[in-house]
């Protein structure tokens, strides 16, 4: 297995403007020095509470928003230095599926038009070819070619996300960033969509970055999982290692809140004090120190490096030196 994506020191800072002339008065460190690698064919889950920077990480990788700093390599090519038009060409291979299928589909366009658009953009000029491809894609995601003439409002939430997936797959991408693709759906529909996505990964050799705020959603589908807190990656390892032996105190707290299959099993729920601090004013040192049950003096001063503590198990925490 070789890496398809290498993210190195990715940062995205947003300016906060204020005052009568809108001067810069501060910045939000939405993504603050995040590094990880995704292997070809794998599903990497990225988990964290809302506002932790996981969506911004996804969008910065695709340069849908420009990163402030850092390198992103896709198939050995540094894409952070590409021009916009070179980048547009490459987006054929790198797609994103959004959380809200309602908002991401143009309500005035038929499904045919919605799915044809990326085909046209990337050079499929024959209308007949496009129509055939739309029918094929609809079948791939479990809809019927007969649905092509309908509009988004004529579909259920789950069906709309299937349309979103069909559009993302139109040009045979290699990497798909899935930004909470099931969070807006009923729980009963979520597993159908997750199963479909897993099937499509196998069928088309896809690689996913699967973003979620809920550890129970990524548990099944991911090969490895990264946990983010306040713009930083705090732990990253294989799924089973993360669930059986979480090392970062934040991961331990998140996992203690995931319902167990057997509710009678004893468990120690770790309740964190306080709320997530503002990313405009993150705590010094380890950003988690204001809430961490194990915080030490050094944690307020020194930012812990994100480093391997075992084979394939990265943690940013001073407890593991
Ligand atoms: Fe807790 Fe310190 Fe580890 Fe941060 S570095 S998670 S504050 S023990
Ligand atoms: Mg988000």
TrEMBL record:
Mind telling me which InterPro entries this protein's record contains? AAA+_ATPase (IPR003593), ABC_transp_ATP-bind (IPR050319), ABC_transporter-like_ATP-bd (IPR003439), ABC_transporter-like_CS (IPR017871), Oligopep_ABC_C (IPR013563), P-loop_NTPase (IPR027417)
Q: Give UniProt keywords alphabetically.
A: ATP-binding, Nucleotide-binding, Transport
* Domain called ABC transporter: residue spans: 5-255
What CDD domains does this protein map onto?
Answer: ABC_NikE_OppD_transporters
Molecular-function annotations in GO: ATP binding
Highest taxon in the source lineage: Bacteria
UniProt cross-references to Gene3D superfamilies, sorted A to Z: P-loop containing nucleotide triphosphate hydrolases
Keyword hit for Methyltransferase: no
Describe the family membership recorded for this protein in Swiss-Prot or TrEMBL: Belongs to the ABC transporter superfamily.
Stated name of the protein? ABC transporter ATP-binding protein
Source species: Oceanobacillus aidingensis
């Amino acid at each position: 297995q070789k890496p398809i994506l290498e993210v190195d020191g990715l940062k995205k800072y947003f300016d906060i403007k204020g005052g009568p002339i809108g001067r810069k008065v501060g910045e939000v460190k939405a993504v603050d020095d995040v590094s990880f690698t995704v292997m070809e064919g794998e599903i990497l889950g990225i988990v964290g509470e809302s506002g932790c920077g996981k969506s911004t990480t996804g969008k910065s990788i695709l340069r849908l928003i420009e990163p402030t700093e850092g390198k992103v390599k896709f198939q050995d090519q540094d894409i952070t230095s590409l021009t916009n038009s070179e980048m547009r060409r490459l987006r054929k291979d790198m797609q994103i599926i959004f959380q809200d299928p309602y908002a991401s589909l143009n309500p005035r366009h038929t499904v045919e038009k919605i799915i044809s658009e990326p085909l046209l953009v990337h050079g499929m000029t024959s209308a007949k070819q496009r129509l055939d491809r739309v029918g094929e894609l609809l079948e791939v995601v479990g809809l019927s070619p007969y649905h092509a003439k309908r509009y988004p409002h004529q579909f259920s939430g789950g069906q709309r996300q299937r349309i979103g997936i069909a559009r993302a797959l139109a040009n045979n991408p290699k990497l798909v960033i899935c930004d909470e693709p099931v969070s807006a759906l009923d729980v009963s529909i979520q597993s159908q969509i997750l199963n479909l996505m897993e099937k499509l990964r196998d069928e088309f050799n896809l690689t996913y970055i699967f973003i979620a705020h809920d550890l129970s959603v990524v548990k099944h589908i991911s090969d490895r999982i990264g946990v983010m807190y306040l713009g930083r990656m705090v732990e990253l390892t294989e799924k089973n290692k993360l669930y059986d032996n979480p090392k970062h105190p934040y991961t331990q707290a998140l996992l203690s809140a995931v319902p167990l299959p057997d509710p009678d099993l004893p468990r120690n729920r770790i309740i964190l004090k306080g709320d997530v601090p503002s990313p405009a004013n993150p705590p010094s040192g380890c950003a988690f120190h204001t809430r961490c049950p194990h915080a030490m003096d050094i944690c307020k001063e020194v930012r812990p490096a994100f480093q391997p503590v075992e084979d394939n198990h990265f943690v940013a925490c001073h407890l593991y030196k």
